[in-house]
Amino acid sequence: MFTTETNNDILLITLTVDVLDASNNNDFKDQTSEVVKQQPKVLIDMSALTFIDSSGLGAILSCLRNCNENKGKLKLFAISKTVRTLFELVRMHKVFDIYNTKEEALASFGAK
Length: 112
Fold this sequence. Notes:
The protein is an alpha/beta fold. It has a single domain (2-108), classed as STAS domain (Transcription Regulator spoIIAA, 2-Layer Sandwich), CATH 3.30.750. 41% of the residues lie in helices and 26% in strands. It has four helices and seven strands; from the N terminus they run βββαββαβαβα. A hairpin with a 2-residue loop joins strand 1 and strand 2 (10-15). Helix 1 packs parallel to helix 2 (54-69). The longest helix is centred in the middle third of the chain and has 16 residues, at 54-69. It is globular and about 30 Å long. The relative contact order is 0.18.
């Protein structure tokens, strides 16, 4: 579903699935809730994602809530045009910090 790596105190989650929907959103929520407790500053690389539905959006919102509860932040980057269109349609681009590149997203945390 995803891989993780740490850059300073920032957790980078790289999605390895191309779809985040009702079929796998619970797995995503379960797996991210555990890692976010340890490392609440999170970047999600969404470059592999080609489709997301409302339950997938809910899973990412759940991750955002977990980050906020643990005094962290969640930022997204490398969102495909199709997924970005959906984010804009449901106004999620107002909820999430979205960046074009990993470098921009890391810099927003003050990291290099």
